[in-house]
Amino acid sequence: MTGLSVDDVKISLQKFGLYDYVVFVLMLASCAMIGVYFGFIKKKAKKGDGEADYLVGGRQMSVIPVSLSLIASFISGISLLGTPTEIYVYGIQYMYIVGGVVSMGFIMMYIYLPVFHNLQLTSTYQYLQTRFDKRMRLFGSVLFTFATMAWLPIVIYVPALAFNQVTGVNVHLITPLVCVICIFYTCVGGLKAVVWTDVVQTVMMFGAMLLIIIKGTLDVGGLDVVIDRAMASGRIELPDLRFDMTTRHNIYSCVIGGVIYWLKTNAVSQNMIQRYLSLPTLKDANRALWTFIVGTLFLLGLCCYSGLLIYAKYYDCDPLTTKLAKAKDQLLPLLVMDTLGDFPGLPGLFVAGVFSAALSSLSTGLNSMSAVVLEDFFKPFSNRPLSERATAIIMRSVVGVFGVICVCLVLVVEKLGAVLQLSMSLGSVSNGPLLGIFTLGVLIPWANGTGAIVGGTIGLVVMAWICFKAQIAIATGEMTFETKPVDTQGCSYHFIASEPMSMLAMNTTTTSTQATPASEPEFALYHISYLWYTLMGALITMVIAVIVSFIVGANDPYKMNPKLFSPCVERMLDRRRDKKKPAEDNEPRLEVLETRH
């Protein structure tokens, strides 16, 4: 062991130089120029429907850029930094979620996407009014607004921490600067600017991860060394086949719970559906869906391997124990500076890649917020149709105002400390009830608006209780997580041993207990794995909604517009309608209903 301290090693690894800043600034500048192009140059060249152009790209976008935009929007900085941490700390069990991802693709393609695309909506919550009533549209929109505003500041804050790790620059200096550029190109360029900046940012993400993996693998001695060290430590393992809902990750929670979680985030989320609706045909939307799935699985695979690579690099000197990395979410930036620090410009490419992931998620969120606020809060309550100028002002003002709020909330997020877990769990609170409501709409024609609002409210309350109790259990040590072994025998510097706890790692892997005190019952509802949360919220919502619907008077499916249901339900209703009554008797009823909606 040398005379170096851990602080000396930290300082020696901060090699972010001029070329790195140039790469980072060029990424930001390219995004700003794309916004200028679509907001001013292209807009003057081609006049059209301003609202449709701003929110859904005139419904004439191309498959490849939309697919890359979907990947960039879904993979945030939290994913890029959190997934390698998950693998390093807990092993590869989480990666069996790929089965859930592929299953989600088939379910979305045949059940959800045809409904939204055929109705040509701008806000997915318009569907809730058409299928149920105005109360449901407002309910869904409010949930989306609060969940988005709780998520976006964390999306911004996490990569700012990475930037701080590699440069030492204050978080509050870089966050406003980057966010202002993102707000600018989202505000002036609309969805087209968001999609094409996402293309640039996706390339940056893949480039950064591939660079780290290739150079890092060569440094540790090759792929064989990475695999051997991961196998020896138990990080590479077969799927856990035990059916136990309190196990944090097993094959059932990853595939069954995973498919439901991904359905909510991809099949009924405004952030994602808005991109599918920007494509001209359903066939194009399906192609974009599968391109997105393949690209996301590839990127998740890169993140998984980088987690194994971090262990192979630090297998005999754990940087968390030595405090070389202050928090678990700083493991990947540490590997980058250790691996690429001597190559000018390459650390800058990594930081640009992580910030690209954050910017794409932020711009997606802001653009979706402008669609929801305009369609669900302004238009339904406006006494007369909004002019094109008023619509443009509202859409851009929403992006600006909510963007500034997100920047301010970053200050709050930093002060929350461990309470950050609670704010990151807000997604789990609303995801299940929202998925349950949309699934009721497309699959269960008997469910009515009263049943949906009661079911959604009860589902929301129950999931809020479960998430709150789970966070308390984690904070008090009632719920503990089994981690993979680490070692510090090979460290070449002095340190004081510790066991740091990361806000990000605890939340991206918020889990069920591995052991509970003897005084506690063997099973408690809030001890279940976080991957079951969305499924539980959806089931509670749907069961309650169906019961209440039949109590107050269920819908007559044959009096409803069949286009509001998924193709399989629509075919079933058509067959039964043909058997029950002649087709001529139903034509006037359908026409009346369609005009009413």
Order of helices and strands: HHHHHHHHHHHHHHHHHHHHHHHH
What integer value in Å does the Rg equal?
A: 25 Å
Indicate the percent of residues in helices.
Answer: over 70%
Number of strands: 0
Low-confidence stretches: 45-52, 417-423, 499-521, 588-597
Number of helices: 24
Largest sheet: none
In whole angstroms, how far apart are the ends? 75 Å
Alpha-beta content class: mainly alpha
User: What is the approximate shape?
Assistant: globular
Output mean pLDDT. Answer: 79
Strand residue percentage: under 5%
What does this protein structure show overall?
With 597 residues, this protein is mainly alpha-helical. The chain is 72% helix and 0% strand. The chain is built from 24 helices and no strands. Helix 2 (18-45) packs parallel to helix 16 and helix 8 (134-167) packs antiparallel against helix 19. The longest helix has 50 residues, at 171-220. The chain starts with 5 loop residues before the first helix and ends with a helix. The relative contact order is 0.16.
